[in-house]
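Chain entry —
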Amino acid sequence: MKKEIIYDELLEKIPNKYILTIVSGQRARQIGKGEPILTKYSKKDTDVKKAFREILADKIGYEIAEEKVGE
């Protein structure tokens, strides 16, 4: 049986809930368009749950790029 996805564990991986929402949403859309899934999953899992499992497994993450505005 698969381990439950716990919100606090997700926040340990990506500490900002807004960034977590953006990252998981973008990845879920990619999965929905047919990109390969990087972790094991259940047939009942939604695309968002699959994205959450990838975050918990450290398969995906984020980085903040610094841009200089006006140059």
Observations:
- Residues 29 and 47 are 8 Å apart (CA to CA).
- The longest helix spans residues 17-32.
- The mean pLDDT is 90.
- The radius of gyration is 14 Å.
